[in-house]
Amino acid sequence: MKKAEVAHVLAQIDGLDASLEHAVEAYDSATQRLGAIEHEQSINRNELSIARQNLKRQQSRLANRLVALYTSGDSSTLGVILGATSLDDLLSRVDTVNRVSDEDARVVKEIKHFKRTVTRQKQLLAHAHESQAQVVSERAAAKASIDQQLAERRQLAASIRSEIVRLEAEERARQERLRREAEARLAEQQRAAAAAALQAATAAAVSPPAAAPTPEASTSAAPATAPTPVATIASPSESVGVVASTPEATVAPPSQYGGAVGIAMQYLGTPYVWGGASPGGFDCSGLVVYVYAQLGLSLPHYTGALWNVGTPVTQDQLEPGDLVFFNGLGHMGIYIGGGQFIHAPHTGDVVKISNLSDSWYAATYDGARRIL
Fold this sequence. Notes:
- The protein is α+β, with helices and mostly antiparallel strands.
- It is built from ten helices and ten strands.
């Protein structure tokens, strides 16, 4: 096959991969919403059960009261009650009888309340069932789209099998080099942090106590305060290196989760699995969710939701552990320093390291978020 034809097929595969990422994220979004709906249904079913039990108990109390009225020969009250044509009519009549005790009135009031509660919970359950059916349909459509695009990708890949084998071998060698560089950088950062901590502890141990200020010092003018630095925030629609200036934005606080890098690197080479969020296989947001879960944080398994977590950071503010987003929030990864990030790219690939400056990522860069 000619080189130009191979390049054309590879471009088609890349286009399918980008489209596939959006389908996978649509599936993840539907899965997340389905989980929320099922949780809501569980709560509503429990509340409906409680309301029914309370209603039954209060109706029993009212029945006992009616028996007491009958056996006591209270004909005037009994006449009003016996004229009722339905339970609602009975409740209304009992509620208006002047000779009904305070206890009777309270029971009637609670019966009405529990009847309304039962009705409301039934309506909420019905609405949740409708929402559930819609989301299940969305998930099925996303899955069908994924399956179709996967079949197309496999067919295209088969047509240039030998070229793909060569490219995969080159990529494995490249990934090994990037892994060694990233591990060396991480080790150096850890050594520098340990040395800085030791130096600070030593300085604190040997420094003399601060002298009390002299009268002259206390009346001297205070030094001028340095102006607060102002950051710029990247718009989701802007490519890497192009940011919109927003005067009201401030520099983001330092990252607390640089440890995410070391955890994520343990899973280099793990296969991509759409919808995956475990060491058996990850999709892009699933990798982020799993890594941060090891740090004690529960994050949503959906790039659109993760985009709204934390605070925005510009590219020149990026620190290890920040989340970077691409392709209209169709893809994401974890920044590891040195202009690189770790991610689960697409089906047929594995968790790997890439450069923000690589052409596709630079062209589709949406921005970054720092988890606080």
